[in-house]
Amino acid sequence: MSTKITLAKGLNMGLRQAMEDDPKVLVMGEDVGKLGGVFRITDGLQKDFGEDRVIDSPLAESGIVGTAVGLALRGYRPVVEIQFDGFVYPAYDQIVCQVAKMHFRSRGRSTMPMVIRIPFGGGIGAVEHHSESPEAQFAHTPGLKVVACSNPVDGYWMIQQAIACDDPVIFLEPKRQYHADKADLDESATPAPLFASRVVRPGTDVTLLAYGPTVKTAMRAAEAAATEGRSVEVIDLRTLSPLDMAPVFDSVRRTGRAVVCHEAHVNLGMGAELSARITEECFYSLESPVLRVGGFDTPYPASRIEEDFLPDLDRVLDAVDRSLDF
Amino acid sequence: MSQPVPQTDPPADRPEQGAAFGPDLAEVFGPSQTDGGPELVQLLTPEGERVHHPEFDLDFSEEQLRGFYRDMVLTRRLDVEATALQRHGELGIWAQLLGQEAAQIGAGRALRKQDHVFPTYREHGVAWCRGIDPLRLLGLFRGVDHGDWDPEDYGFGLYTIVIGAQTLHATGYAMGMQRDGVVGTGDADRDAAVIAHFGDGASSQGDVNESFIFAASYNAPVVFFCQNNQWAISEPIERQSRIPLYQRALGFGFPGVRVDGNDVLATYAVTQAALQRARDGQGPTFVEAYTYRMGAHTTTDDPTRYRLSADVESWKLKDPIARLEAYLKRNGFADAAFFEALDDEAEQFGATLREGCKALPDPSPLAMFDQVYAEQTEELVAQRDGYAAYLDSFEPETEVAR
């Protein structure tokens, strides 16, 4: 028995299931209560679980994450919503200095079972600070785990798995996809592990790595490439810290070529780390350098030109061509 | 109309405010003063005279008074020994509490077992009251760990180095207590509260101000205990605030009290009242313990570069231990045998600290890989194994002990 759901619905259902499964799970953030969040991800949760468990917070991101630290120390499992990617920075100190280090500082005595949900990425025609991709800043921080979902079914399962994890998880949601596509959810299925990447389209000529919003772009690029007789294998990384490199290495050893695609700035982004690891492990299998397609090293531009900033079908195909023609 | 400003004249680079924007600050906050002011809650004068207060008076047993005294003497001994251990190269650094013993012992002894403390890195006296082995504090400053105690076992969190960050943790923890149903039940053994320690410097931090907002908004059972020791490293309190700190609470919507932080009796009485208010479900309170940092910020600091010795000398006359000693002796609450026995205990305590500190073992280098995550990652296991193999590649005589 399956139902058609959007990513927003999958996340909402996953949150609801996690709250039903464990009374210690709390949802906190700005406008998450009556409004159900500006993207409606927490729609209806306060009505059903009450104001003690779905907490509308004052407008202070450091305060939200900092008080969530205290709730976690008290034995709760807070799920924090940061309203937009660009608003996470006031909480950056609490996340990096406190959330990430508490388990280490306490020699394992205090855990931080906290999920920090961040709608990330662009393409929604927003004003400044509403379209950013800060994942590398968190993946660079020991003590955090960082995952990005790309589709409705993963949204449903991954949010529950992140909440069940005893480590703090930065949970990145491609906001452009929230209400875009529908997929069939089978709630009785066994989900894949949270910290595992996945081959979403097999291929033989080049490995294309993506996560979050660029998975859809990568899939469309692979379809387009196929019409030209080029077989692109697409991997949805899903987990950015830790990275699950085994499927990537396996793929690159077969294809000999790799292209990484993300919306974040290329300089010191996830693509740089992926490129380094592929080079270290698959050096003798590589037929061409690992290429990166991503946001330029500029601040996110005004929305009328954001499609120039974001890696699109053509830029990904261009990189695939360059990799194959090397 | 010119604008009188409490505590300090406006800096020359700041124009005086006109009266058109709201009330006269001096009318709201009282006249300028530098000695703690008329609202300073005091039960024991610097001369050791017991005085009374209409709101916060308490009766103390002789045993309680002697206990406070012992706590303060041993806490000061810890501070002296740790400072010397740093000078001898046994500690990397030490944050001194000299002069703040009454503020910390008064606050620490007002706690109940079920209460929870969120300390700064200077809360050695509160740690003592919570039963933390002082060697654990020395271990942190020696650099063998970041604090080797279980916060839940002692109701005492790990020292927080980032200024003010812990006030938010305290508020969240207090929100957890509300959800656990241990606030305002009327059961004295059950009702609990949180106390967040911080200093005058931290009062400028965004996190501290956000914690006030969250605590007020949710009516959280938390006491914000600010030791105003007048100095944030080299910066005087006037750089942090133009009004007495305790009066800031008003703007956040909860009461603030200024207590003589060198008076252990008053600090105990005020903190106990604030904690009880929180346990009863009446929400947060700001307690400003007005005190003075007699030592340096830490052992790396040199206060002679920025403050006058005359100021330090004037505060010596307000010493927290001397005033309680005078009170005990004058009233016969402690005899010569008590003071002699305490001297002996302090000597023994000092020797234990010196020997214990030097005997603290260095941690295993490989242990750092194992405590990053509750659920270990393959990446870190690989790094750990790689480093272990690297260490093993050396000749035995140069091998690093693990």
Topology:
The complex is a heterodimer of chains A (326) and B (402).
Chain A: E1 3-5, H1 7-21, E2 25-29, H2 45-49, E3 54-56, H3 61-73, E4 77-81, H4 92-99, H5 102-105, E5 115-120, H6 135-139, E6 145-148, H7 152-164, E7 169-174, E8 183-185, E9 198-201, E10 206-210, H8 214-227, E11 232-236, E12 239-241, H9 246-255, E13 258-265, H10 270-282, E14 291-295, H11 306-309, H12 313-325
Parallel strand pairs in A: 2-3, 2-4, 4-5, 5-7, 6-7, 10-11, 10-13, 13-14
Antiparallel strand pairs in A: 1-8, 6-12, 9-11
Helix pairs in contact in A: 1-7, 3-4, 8-12
Chain B: H1 25-29, H2 62-87, H3 101-109, E1 116-118, H4 124-129, H5 134-142, H6 151-154, H7 165-180, E2 194-199, H8 206-218, E3 222-228, E4 231-232, E5 235-236, H9 237-240, H10 248-252, E6 256-260, H11 264-279, E7 285-290, H12 309-316, H13 320-330, H14 336-359, H15 378-392
Parallel strand pairs in B: 1-2, 2-3, 3-7, 6-7
Antiparallel strand pairs in B: 4-5
Listing every helix as H and every strand as E from the N terminus to the C terminus, the arrangement of chain A reads: EHEHEHEHHEHEHEEEEHEEHEHEHH
- The CATH class of the largest domain in chain A is identified as Alpha Beta
Proportion of helical residues of chain B? 40-55%
Rounded radius of gyration of chain A (Å): 19 Å
Indicate how many domains the architecture of chain B comprises.
Answer: 3
Return the CATH topology of the largest domain in chain B. Answer: Rossmann fold
H/E topology pattern of chain B: HHHEHHHHEHEEEHHEHEHHHH
Question: Which features characterize this protein?
Answer:
heterodimer; A: 326 residues; alpha/beta; Rossmann fold; 2 domains; 7-stranded mixed beta sheet; B: 402 residues; 5-stranded parallel beta sheet; two-stranded antiparallel ribbon; 15 helices; globular
